Here is the input.
Amino acid sequence: MATAHTLASLAQRFGLALRGDGQVRVSGVGTLAAAGPDQLTFLANPRYRGELASTRAGAVVLRAAEVESAPCPALIASDPYVAFAKIAALFDPRVAPAPGIHGSADIAASARIDPSAHIGAFVSIGARSVIAAGAIIGPGCVIGEDCVVGAGSELVARVTLVMRVHLGHRVLIHPGAVLGADGFGLARDGGRWIKVPQRGGVVIGDDCEIGANTTIDRGALEDTVLEEDVRLDNQIQIAHNVRIGAHTAMAGCVGVAGSTKIGHNCLIAGAVGINGHIEICDNVVVHAAGVVLQSITQPGEYASGTLLQDHRSWRRNATRFKQLDEMARSVNALSKDPKR
Amino acid sequence: MATAHTLASLAQRFGLALRGDGQVRVSGVGTLAAAGPDQLTFLANPRYRGELASTRAGAVVLRAAEVESAPCPALIASDPYVAFAKIAALFDPRVAPAPGIHGSADIAASARIDPSAHIGAFVSIGARSVIAAGAIIGPGCVIGEDCVVGAGSELVARVTLVMRVHLGHRVLIHPGAVLGADGFGLARDGGRWIKVPQRGGVVIGDDCEIGANTTIDRGALEDTVLEEDVRLDNQIQIAHNVRIGAHTAMAGCVGVAGSTKIGHNCLIAGAVGINGHIEICDNVVVHAAGVVLQSITQPGEYASGTLLQDHRSWRRNATRFKQLDEMARSVNALSKDPKR
Amino acid sequence: MATAHTLASLAQRFGLALRGDGQVRVSGVGTLAAAGPDQLTFLANPRYRGELASTRAGAVVLRAAEVESAPCPALIASDPYVAFAKIAALFDPRVAPAPGIHGSADIAASARIDPSAHIGAFVSIGARSVIAAGAIIGPGCVIGEDCVVGAGSELVARVTLVMRVHLGHRVLIHPGAVLGADGFGLARDGGRWIKVPQRGGVVIGDDCEIGANTTIDRGALEDTVLEEDVRLDNQIQIAHNVRIGAHTAMAGCVGVAGSTKIGHNCLIAGAVGINGHIEICDNVVVHAAGVVLQSITQPGEYASGTLLQDHRSWRRNATRFKQLDEMARSVNALSKDPKR
Here is the structure.
């Protein structure tokens, strides 16, 4: 029952050039190393070029520069990874769950659920919340009060929207994510902490994707905002009143402190830490494990940190780092001495 | 139906000086930039001073030094952020959920639930656990065996207390937090790992707050302990047998390894990593992304790491770091040479 | 009703030498500082040697070199921590929950549950999934479609297996963990992101342990794989298509990016970040907070980062790091100058 497509039909559908037999049929996708004769594969990352000659795939998507090396019929794309993503989606057998509300769900009387939405087992929905057309709320999700889940959005399972969380259209949230928890607002009063009420919400734009166990706190007074098509990986922490610009993507384990604004089209690599109350402009790339303490006003690539070494060498070098200022002064003095 | 207060009544209630018309009424709070004529705003962080002149707020809380610049009636506070937090709490419309046990909850026969506690949908409570007066257990929480939730404590939703977790009074835990899971105790035996049973518990003092998706493991033999008024942000990892002193606060993504003791009144910034089996004294501040490998015996501010740069410059500098010890030796030799 | 064992029986059972009265009975375990006369304690970490003389424990496990200092009967072990772990397990009063399916569980018709398995409250199990003999699925777990939970495995509570997750025998997963969520596959197409379908699964070998709130994504085409006896602490992120070799252990907050292969018997300390598409050989140790950007081909210990200092000194040294390349060039020039 697998869907099958001819290379010719795929070439036409996605505007790709064809080299070789267009009647070859593929019914799935695979890696260069593992794909079989009824599957399509792809070469995007030059690191894997060595696997092309021996692939058993029925067909391959690759760049024009590589096509002479292809041992099978090929589709030519300027960006093979994008083309592959679009073709692979044809074979992805996701069946949307049926509309309706599971008998076990606990839904407040003032909540409004569109008839075409799917509400799964053990879901809890609070007062005045709205679930729009075609939304999918998987098992164990908790949606608190005054939330909106926009049309076509999906909460896979065990997602929590605490309160005042507004999801746009086609937002996808993976298990364990928590949106709308209290921002970390504390004031110090006579030796103790007092809590600053967090009266804002969270606004997530259309087509955003939020990874497993990622947390996005609601704002203190204004909202915490993700613009459209923002993509967050797993285990990311977004503090209260952060604003993330459209089409920005962040890899796993990033942390962004409160009130920081990040521009459009930024790429934030894994484990980056970003300070609060700063501003990062559009088109900024921050490399893995970088720490951003101050605003970035110029597009470009940025990094911090040190490189891995054997532990013994590292220990010696790290010890010297603690005297780097003295060392620099010595070097300056040596450089200036007329006798030198 | 919004609560409204006159400035005069707020000044009296919170011991603040008043400048201007005390009959001005406010029914909410807002930022300098967004507040309207029926709202109170505040100026605490000098970074935002430029927004004061143009605020449309009905009134502002600020320091005495700023009051001449206020375009509206003002309340004067030595710590405007604290004053604002207390006033904002008057307008926070949180309505406590009604006492009682949701019909779907699964509660062990030997558990004891105070009649004034609220137990939400899909909550699971295990043998011998106790839920005290006024406690709120939100939807989807799992409380295992031998736990105690103290009076006035709240588990917002989807919180797990695995076993032997003891919460004091007025503890607030945000969604996805896991307390009392097995500490990471492993012993290496003939090429394989064997698990070390974790037979302790977790003790959380009064007024602690624990962020979303934060994890606190139970101890191996003794307990893992948070003293009173400890505030933990999201995505924090506290390993087995850690002890955190009263009034210490940690920002998001901090990790503390096993058996470490942290003193009172410490401020641990985001993404800090703290080694195991060390001791940090009272009144220590560790800056963002710092790595603490050894005990700290003196109060003060500490940091580690490098500063962000454009990627090309960083690459060159990071490469030099790998030869820092050699460089230091060269500098020492140059400094000592009599001919130099 | 506590279990009690004589030292003589413990010595025989675990192949340990005995010094002193073999008829001493112990009915539990405790730390050097806190154990009482009916408990066994241990000395493994030399850091705690000072506590040995004053222990009130009924007996102690330690190395031969320490036995003269023991104030009580002793069991002698070459690895006291391993011996203690095995003995402690005799006193760990874990009672397995009874077989059967809780009345509230929501189980797909095509799922297969072994009669000896335990399915807890509010558990959701999807189509074609299989739960094998003696498996324990705790409250609030969500198991999606096409999953397998192998014999004797346990999901403590609130664990999510999204789809196509295959657990071997005796796998233990702590609360909040999410296995099988979509890998972070994105392709950039004309200014927007498109999602790359993640069609692989997750395979977890026998005897693995996975910590609280840890996330392991499923693969893009092939599976994400943990070999047998891999131990992951809390808050770890494992990206799609990673492969982790047998007997490797990782402490809390580690992040491993996509398609990386890690060998056998590696020890990855807390908060380490590991780049994608690299390979780490067997028997590698990476120290806490290290960042691994390139493949490691030699067994040994590795580290990166800088050491903590008072903030003022750190600030000066970190500023100098930004000119390290210039400094190195100056030093080289000074070293070469014939006049010098």
